[in-house]
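Q: How would the structure tokens look for this protein?
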Amino acid sequence: MKNLINEFKEFAFKGNVIDMAIGVIMGGALGGVVTAVVNMILGVISALFKVPASLNEAAFAVGTVNIAYGPVIAEAINFLILTSCVFALVKAVNAARALKPEEEPAPEEPAPKSDEAVLLEQIVDLLKAQEK
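A: Here is the predicted structure in token form.
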């Protein structure tokens, strides 16, 4: 059970999960703004074309049943605007990540020479000195 709790803590406190939570909260706030903008735009359109003042009032009757198609259209417009904003945001983040220079790995230091190699180099140096 303790292992499960530790795994959950590791998952919950990673940066990606926190970033996602912030995105969901901001998306919810953006949803209200988009709804207000869509209602404003639909108000202007309704004034220009003399259609119902609100999509919530747009409906047609089939027999004794009124089918309200207005809210569906309003939500579809909200969806399109929100997905366009999220798409643009993701594209901007990906472009920013592509501009970030990658860190170059540090140059590797040569491995220390073995005792035999050091002795052989000393022998070669001595032989060269004797030849002169």
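The beta strands are 60-62, 65-67.

The first helix runs from residue 2 to 12.

Upvote if useful.
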